[in-house]
Amino acid sequence: MRHATPSALDQLEPLLFELRRLRLLKEKSRGIFYRGASAFLHFHEDPAGLFADVKLDGEDFVRRRVSTQAEQRALVAAVRRALSAESAPRAPRK
């Protein structure tokens, strides 16, 4: 599975637009997003479709299919939840 080509990213432009609106993410280059200093999300393509590798748990990349609008909406929702969980205040340790 190779990284997404410019033409594949063209197909994902509505998704990229939504991700760019999330203030905790920084797009270092087209389709490659960072959370702080760490890589957070990037895209791949193969004959089975378009995919995002994303660190929803903040640690390990998981692959999510993003070929359809429904899959893209689900990814944005999952990213929002992950970013909210990461930025939520944590209880002090005892």
Structure explained in plain terms:
The chain has about 90 residues and is an alpha+beta fold. The protein is built from three helices and six strands; from the N terminus they run E-H-H-E-E-E-E-E-H. Strands 1, 2, 3, 4, 5 and 6 form a six-stranded antiparallel β-sheet that branches. A hairpin with a 2-residue loop joins strand 3 and strand 4. About 20% of the residues are buried.
Low-confidence stretches: none
How many distinct domains?
A: 1
Largest sheet: 6 strands, antiparallel
CA distance, first residue to last residue: 45 Å
Give the H and E element order: EHHEEEEEH
Mean pLDDT: 92
* Count of DSSP-assigned helices: 3
What sort of overall outline do the alpha carbons produce when their principal axes are compared?
globular
Hey, roughly how much beta strand do the residues contain?
Answer: 25-35%
Number of strands: 6
What brief labels describe this structure?
94 residues; alpha+beta; 6-stranded antiparallel sheet; globular
